[in-house]
Design brief:
By secondary structure, the chain is an alpha+beta fold. The chain has a single domain, classed as Nuclear Transport Factor 2, Chain: A, CATH 3.10.450. 25% of the residues lie in helices and 45% in strands. The protein contains 3 helices and 5 strands. The protein has a 5-stranded mixed beta sheet with strand order 1-5-4-3-2. Strand 4 and strand 5 form a beta hairpin. It is globular, with a radius of gyration of 13 Å.
Length: 88
């Protein structure tokens, strides 16, 4: 699988202090994969943020090109677990 980072995603990762290795890990071992509109997929996993001292979700919004190419559009972490986590 090839993972391509857009310039926007790199900027957001730097701004939000999110490591590239964390993003790749979420893509490869996502706890949840959510199909979205326009051929986009959201990979997300829960984690404990030591800086914030709370459980959060790392969300990686991607576009799928062919079965083996994933383009990272943006990435962010959020504490709004109830809003984004799909139970069940």
């Amino acid at each position: 699988m090839d993972i391509i980072f857009t310039s926007h995603s790199k900027l957001e990762m730097k701004r939000r202090n999110i490591k590239e290795s964390s993003v790749i890990s979420v893509i490869k071992k996502a706890e949840q994969k959510i199909n979205s509109k326009n051929n986009k997929i959201i990979f997300q996993s829960k984690f404990f943020d030591a800086d914030e001292q709370t459980e959060m979700i790392l969300r990686v919004i991607c576009e799928l090109f062919e079965p083996k190419i994933i383009k990272v559009i943006t990435v962010y972490k959020t504490s709004k677990i109830k809003k984004y986590w799909i139970e069940g």
